[in-house]
Design brief:
With 519 residues, the chain is α/β, with parallel strands linked by helices. It has helices at residues 3-7, 39-48, 54-58, 77-92, 99-102, 106-128, 149-161, 163-166, 178-182, 196-212, 217-224, 227-237, 319-326, 336-343, 351-357, 368-373, 379-391, 447-458, 478-485, 499-502, and strands at 16-18, 36-38, 138-143, 169-175, 248-252, 270-276, 285-290, 293-300, 310-315, 374-377, 395-402, 417-422, 425-429, 440-442, 467-477, 507-518. The longest helix is centred in the first third of the chain and has 23 residues, at 106-128. The protein is globular.
């Protein structure tokens, strides 16, 4: 089992829950900063503590990277795809492979096609309205860039297909993990892309040399290092100098900290903010209704018998919690604005039911009462929306993430999955009160609530009475998005099964834009 596969409701793996105390770990919880913290700070410490946090300490062990694109044309349908993914996890020893990695470079190219289409449409509208005909500078800011694969794919695509956009584009990644940012390879030539006729030709050449000329494959590797053959190869597969140094920068910073965004905007830029599989790892806060009154959850470390913390309920007073709570009706299960989220898997779903029927029936861990009595609020995401508003008043925001997670052992609405992967097997926990760095903690995204929060934070925030803000928000399935922007032929297997749109069915695409409009 793997975290990534289980997020995608893959039927090829299995898992078993564990209690926090059953996990052997050398990690310890630091209590030097405070004896009690809000839940979001507790989760942040587990995931991002500079020394012991899950992501900083494990780095590449957590976020895997493929060394070359997968050849989906050789896979025999879903079984062949599942076998290959399982093989990759076992070989690489990583906790999870993101969809960006599994489908690289095609996933990133689809995002790039969307960006290019939107940029060109904006330019066309500007010309039709008699505006500035000069091309605006483009700034793409990616939050949580992982291995930098998406950035490389987007920059490669723009350089190849839209050099006019590329010449005006700069790309910034903002990641809390020094290890992940340090591992990005954007400034160096990226991995060779094998696709379309070029990839087919390369495979034919390999078979020809190996089978007909009886040239050992090791010798072929040696031949590939010859400068003349390398130039020939590059002409075949469309390679070129992909040194994007002048268009790319990586920054270490926390996206929920306003200071990390300072100075990123240059005058006249058109800004795109990207976040792929970022929302699920953002710390949340927990609130619980007791005797008709909402309480916020704190974690206290004062108990020697519970070194990983003990939950305490306090009167709800935190400003961020209050603002996030007011932005959406979190408890009205049958409300009109919540109905779409129910149908789209906003409630936690059982693995078997989802695969066999497509239903998003809630798991046994989430009882009817818990959905209205215990709620996990995306307060960190709420803070990030505020920072985007302040740093980039005019922007387009593209987010892709999970709207439901299987096998959750924690009660409450939008409750997280707490899990670690050991020897390619997922080990689930029944609590987030675990040692620092010992587990990944990720949440489903209620996209209806996200839309409401975005509109709350963007509408009415402009104090200029002469200028109103135009906001457009859309939420769609990732399958619909990729049908519009991906090269589906190259990710289709021999049986016609296409994992780019048929796998990861619990993911959605959120696109929102904010612009000033004179009234």
């Amino acid at each position: 089992d793997t975290n990534a596969a289980r997020r995608a409701f893959s039927s090829s793996f299995s898992s078993s829950p564990s209690s926090p105390s059953s996990s052997s770990s050398s990690f310890t919880t630091s209590t030097t900063s405070s004896s009690a913290v809000l839940l979001r700070d507790h989760i942040s410490r587990i995931l991002a503590d500079p020394n012991e946090g899950y992501f900083p300490k494990r780095g590449a062990e957590v976020v895997g990277k493929l060394h070359e694109p997968l050849n989906f044309k050789t896979m025999v349908g879903k079984p062949g795809y599942d076998f290959k993914i399982r093989e990759l996890y076992q070989r690489e020893g990583t906790s999870w492979l993101t969809p960006v990695e599994i489908f690289q470079p095609y996933y990133g190219e689809a995002v790039a096609r969307y960006l290019a289409e939107d940029i060109l449409q904006a330019r066309s509208k500007a010309e039709e309205s008699g505006g500035d005909r000069r091309n605006r500078k483009i700034h793409v800011c990616e939050v949580g860039a992982g291995n930098g694969t998406l950035a490389a794919n987007v920059l490669d695509f723009m350089l190849e297909r839209h050099p006019d956009i590329y010449s005006e584009l700069r790309y910034t990644v903002l990641d809390v993990s020094k290890g992940l940012v340090r591992g990005e390879k954007i400034k160096q030539p990226t991995e060779k892309k094998r696709k379309g006729e070029a990839y087919f030709f390369g495979k034919v050449l390999e078979i020809f040399c190996d089978s007909l000329l009886h040239v050992p494959r090791k010798m072929l590797t040696v031949f590939h290092t010859l400068p003349t053959l390398l130039i020939w190869q590059e002409s075949l597969v469309g390679l070129h100098n992909r040194n994007h140094e002048s268009h790319f920068q990586s920054l270490v910073g926390n996206a929920c900290d306003g200071k990390s965004w300072e100075g990123l905007l240059e005058g006249g830029e058109r800004v795109y903010v990207l976040g792929l599989e970022v929302l699920d790892n953002l710390p949340h806060d927990r609130i619980e209704k007791v005797d008709g009154k909402w309480m916020e959850t704190w974690v206290s470390y004062e108990s020697e018998s519970h070194p990983n913390g003990v939950e305490e309920l306090r009167e709800m007073r935190d400003d961020v919690i209050l603002s996030c709570f007011d932005a959406y009706d979190w408890t009205a299960i049958n409300s009109e604005k919540d109905e779409e989220q129910k149908k789209d898997g906003g409630f936690l779903a059982t693995l078997e039911t989802f695969i066999t029927t497509g239903s998003t029936k809630r798991t046994a861990a989430v009882e009817e009462g818990d959905s209205s009595r215990v709620v996990f609020l995306p307060t960190t995401a709420f803070s990030i929306l505020r920072n985007i508003r302040e740093s980039f008043p005019e922007h387009t925001l593209l987010l892709i993430d999970f709207d439901a997670l299987p096998d959750v052992q924690i009660r409450g609405r939008n409750a997280p999955l707490v899990s670690d992967t050991v020897n390619a097997l997922a080990n689930d926990f029944t609590s987030y009160l675990v040692p620092v760095g010992s587990a990944d903690i990720f949440f489903p995204t209620n996209f209806g609530a996200l839309k409401a929060m975005y509109e709350t934070e963007i509408f009415g925030c402009d104090q200029d009475p002469q200028c109103a803000r135009q906001v457009d928000v859309s939420v769609r399935s990732s399958a619909d998005f990729f049908k519009d922007y991906a090269d589906l032929d190259i990710t289709t297997t021999l049986s016609g099964y296409n994992p780019l749109i048929d796998d990861f069915t619990n993911t959605r695409v959120f696109v929102a834009s904010s612009s000033h409009k004179k009234v």
